[in-house]
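User: Please predict the structure of the protein below. I'd like the answer in structure-token form so I can feed it into my own downstream comparison script.

Assistant: Understood. Taking the following sequence of 161 residues as input:
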Amino acid sequence: MTVAAFHPRPEPAEVARVTATAGELLEVLWGRASTAPASASQMRVLLTLEHQDGINLRTLCDALSSAPPATSRLCDRLVAAGFVERVIGKADRREVRLHLSIRGRAFLDELRARREEELQAVLRLMPTGKRAALLEGLEAFCDAAALQIHDKGAQPGDRTA
């Protein structure tokens, strides 16, 4: 019996609880897939740089809600590992821009491939109709989460096509 069988229109609290459990299970599955030489904090840096290539340290600190010394140390380790490159600004030599290196991008690509293999093994165990429903729900979740992250204060449905 599923949550929806009890409540045809599940409340956000119920969905949040099940989604949190799914997130925890994903962490376990992804842990199996990881041969990562990067910590969870370092992964957040890599993923942030992937989406905001060329940002400076201050912007990265804001994105991570982290203090500059801690963020700088994270970047030092990632530079030493060859995953991140620091580039001195052309207009202002005091500004340093952060970029994923080719090795950093390859690392993320390989990690994603291993994670997807773990997920596919689980998804193969699900009935086709449930996989379709999961896909539809996750697409809507991703849209709403992106809206909340990128357009703070906006509500899902506020966007115009």
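That's the full token string. The beta strands are 55-56, 84-88, 96-100.
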